[in-house]
Amino acid sequence: MPRMPFALLCLLLSAPAFAHPPVVAVDVGHTLAAPGATSARGRSEFDFNRDLAREVAAALIARGIAAHLVNVDGQIASLRDRPKAVPEADFFLSIHHDSVSEHELTPWTWQGTAQSYSDAYAGHSLFVSQNNPAPAASLTCASAIGARLQRMGFVPTDKNARRRAWADRANTVHWYDNLIVLYRTTKPAVLFEAGVIKHRDEELLLRDPVRQRRMADGIATGVAACLQVMPSAGSAR
Ligand SMILES: [Zn+2]
């Protein structure tokens, strides 16, 4: 029986998708002390971010990707420290939920508490930075995530086009060059806004665990696709 070249044997025995598992850092946006926006019903953005980030990490792991949650305890206040939490990561994904400006809000009462809402905008959007060391790879990943979500029926928002230039309009990706978490890193990075938690109907959708899992599945499919074409990801280490 002829001897099989060692490299070929390795290829045949490896997982079909990646020779070595790529590593992805999934960042929970904001902190317990400064939890970001507040939903129409008074829930903190940090809680939304943590729920979805956990689902995204699980969906990545199910695809053979080594996903590491960053700031799941809500204690990493420094945005510079977040990419450093997983130095071996091939890709950094920060999970957020969107809001609107103060002047766009309408007061209402929810279960006896004074809250505020805006039903003007709903939907997800994505951000990349031209100051990231790998802006093209970052954009490829953001576009892949956005394309997959829209193909699954998730409807994006153009609300952020009012202030942020399009990087990929078809897939709802914007340039946001000075976001520290996107450029104080050595790896491609994307910030994902899952939806507008000040929108009363969308808030309920964003709290639905079944929908969270479905959205996470779409995000993970997009990440897996972009890692396949990222030359450094999953290479021998
Ligand atoms: Zn946020």
How would you explain this protein's 3D organization?
The chain has one domain: Zn-dependent exopeptidases (Aminopeptidase, 3-Layer(aba) Sandwich), CATH 3.40.630. Helix content is 33%, strand content 20%. The chain has helices at residues 6-13, 45-62, 81-84, 135-151, 180-183, 200-206, 209-229; strands at 23-28, 66-70, 91-98, 106-110, 113-117, 125-128, 166-168, 173-175, 189-196. The longest helix has 21 residues, at 209-229. It is globular, with a radius of gyration of 19 Å. The structure holds zinc ion. Residues 29-30, 36, 45, 96 line the site of zinc ion (ZN).
What is the overall number of helices?
7
- Main β-sheet, spatial strand arrangement: 2-1-3-9-6-8-7
Indicate the CATH topology: Aminopeptidase
User: How far apart, in Å, are the first and last alpha carbons?
Assistant: 32 Å
Mind telling me the CATH class? Alpha Beta
Mean pLDDT: 91
Q: Tell me the β content.
A: 15-25%
Choose one word for the global shape.
globular
Query: pLDDT below 50 for ≥5 consecutive residues: which ranges?
Result: 1-16
Number of strands: 9
Oligomer: single chain
Quick summary:
By secondary structure, the chain is of the alpha/beta class. Helix content is 33%, strand content 20%. A hairpin with a 4-residue loop joins strand 7 and strand 8 (173-175).
Topology:
Layout: H1 6-13, E1 23-28, H2 45-62, E2 66-70, H3 81-84, E3 91-98, E4 106-110, E5 113-117, E6 125-128, H4 135-151, E7 166-168, E8 173-175, H5 180-183, E9 189-196, H6 200-206, H7 209-229
Parallel strand pairs: 1-2, 1-3, 3-9, 6-8
Antiparallel strand pairs: 4-5, 6-9, 7-8
Bound molecules: zinc ion.
